Amino acid sequence: MLVTKLKEYRAKTNMKQDELAAKVGVRRETIIRLEKGQYNPSLKLAIGLAKVFEVRVEELFEFIDEV
């Protein structure tokens, strides 16, 4: 299961979903699914998002194994 703080970081910077999507080269729908925990990002996308917010990937995403 994916736990994300993406929406929190985006809100802190007053960035819209479509703006973030354009910065990392994905569609807005991908950002929506990421924020809802419905999509696991590729390593490339996770790193790109972390760079946008100048944080480590681990600060944006946490993967929890479901038992």
3D architecture notes:
The protein is mainly alpha-helical. It has a single domain (2-63), classed as 434 Repressor (Amino-terminal Domain). 57% of the residues lie in helices and 9% in strands. The chain contains five helices and two strands; from the N terminus they run βαααααβ. The chain has helices at 6-12, 17-24, 28-35, 43-53, 57-60, and strands at 2-4, 61-63. Strands 1-2 form a two-stranded antiparallel sheet. Helix 2 crosses helix 3. The longest helix has 11 residues, at 43-53. The protein is globular. The mean pLDDT is 93.
Summarize the structure.
The chain has 67 residues and is mainly alpha-helical.
List the helices and strands and how they pair.
Blueprint: E1 2-4, H1 6-12, H2 17-24, H3 28-35, H4 43-53, H5 57-60, E2 61-63
Antiparallel strand pairs: 1-2
Helix pairs in contact: 2-3
Q: Tags for this entry?
A:
single chain; 67 residues; mainly alpha; 434 Repressor (Amino-terminal Domain); two-stranded antiparallel ribbon; 57% helix
The first-level CATH class is given as: Mainly Alpha
Rounded to the nearest angstrom, the distance between the terminal CA atoms is 10 Å
Element-level helix/strand string: EHHHHHE
| Largest sheet composition | 2 strands, antiparallel
Number of domains: 1
Question: What's the number of helices?
Answer: 5
Shape label: globular
Q: What is the oligomeric state here? A: single chain
Alpha-beta content class: mainly alpha
Instruction: Estimate the mean pLDDT confidence.
Output: 93
Strands ordered across the widest β-sheet: 1-2
What is the number of strand segments?
A: 2
The name CATH uses for the topology is: 434 Repressor (Amino-terminal Domain)
Mind telling me which CATH architecture this is?
Answer: Orthogonal Bundle
